[in-house]
Amino acid sequence: MKEFTGIEYLAIDLANHYGLDKELFEDRIQWVKDNWSNLEKFADKADAPFLYKKAVINIRRVAQGLPSGHMVALDATCSGIQIMSAITGCIKGATATGLIDPDVRADAYTTTQEVMNEILGYAGDDALMIARGEVKRAVMTSTYGSKKVPKDVFGEGELLDTFYQAAEEVAEGAFNLLDDLMETWKPFALVHEWVLPDGHEVKVKVMDTVEKRLEIDELGHYQMTAVYQVNQGKKKGVSNVANVIHSLDAYLLRCMIRRCNYDARLVQRVSDTITAELLRRGIEDTRLTEMNEKVAHHYKLYVQTNMLDTVMIYHINHESVQSLPSYYLRKLNNLLARLQEYKPFQIESIHDAFMCHADNCNRMRYWYKEIMAEFAESTILEFIFKTMLDESCMYPKYQDDLGDLIRQSNYAIC
């Protein structure tokens, strides 16, 4: 992973707010260098003028040797398709969302329009020139099962059919997963439930809109229609698609917080406890004790998802550590050692935009791509299907080594 200095991240942040977030990191930094003496003059042309002005003020302060608490925001590249591609092992979708090619700042929305032109045989003056924002709207919503928005953007007929063909070519795993998640809908169920690797239980009530005609005697028998939501089952629905992926998005955020802004004292204490236990097992003939309820719950989640989560450290002490197998303790201790390589730092998030102090951006980017790689190596998807459908299932990945490729990326968040 390419690393940058704090002031270089301030330059990247400034360029992002100007509208250069689709460029390579080096090109964004160079733009700031080339326009250093005139940065203030570009504010009116910036995509986000107020954020741009704030970024200019802060980079000027730092250049003068003054401290700054400015937080740099780095966005995921099409986070929905990114997550869906990772958990399905789809190299096409991973490529389109910046997860694997270290030298390309990917843009799935622009790529989709380019593929549409290839399918239609359009080029030059004949090429489609649909606004990127409109293509983005169609791709984002169609990924979650919407038919209306793509139709609003492309109309009906050949162009709409070409859009779907291109979208599936760009992110095959995501759009096949879309179809499979649609099948998890339970007709007339009042709630859909599943569990995430950190033990978070998702319970989404099925809500339906009801209209009821009312007559109010006190107002001279005035009649009106009340529209309200009730927890009522439906025969068909598409919301499981978005809800499952959004729940994984939220889980990713929780992982980021636990790994970036970890409790240093707790991590050290648990690491010491694990190290002492492994040493004891090396010199004594030991047997595993019975797991308590919390430890058993989180260990079972690890076995079922192959996703190691630091939430376990809140339940490890000198007694409970004796109940966990050595292979698991070694793996957890290795993760804690990686946490301790860098001091804990504050991280904030607005959906798929992650923010931290400029000096900590390298580490934030490291953990994001690492967690996405772990998603690719996990069996999260099979586990979610199992908890939703109450039956075991296999979900073969398109490619088993996607995690290794993700770890080499530079633009997973950028």
Automatic annotation (TrEMBL):
Keyword Transferase: yes
GO annotation, cellular component aspect: DNA-directed RNA polymerase complex
Pfam families the UniProt entry points to: RNA_pol
EC number of the protein: 2.7.7.6
Catalytic activity: RNA(n) + a ribonucleoside 5'-triphosphate = RNA(n+1) + diphosphate
Superkingdom of the source species: Bacteria
Protein name as catalogued: DNA-directed RNA polymerase
Domain DNA-directed RNA polymerase C-terminal as annotated: residue spans: 5-149
Alphabetized UniProt keyword annotations: DNA-directed RNA polymerase, Nucleotidyltransferase, Transcription, Transferase
Keyword Nucleotidyltransferase (UniProt): yes
Family: Belongs to the phage and mitochondrial RNA polymerase family.
Molecular-function GO terms, alphabetical: DNA-directed RNA polymerase activity
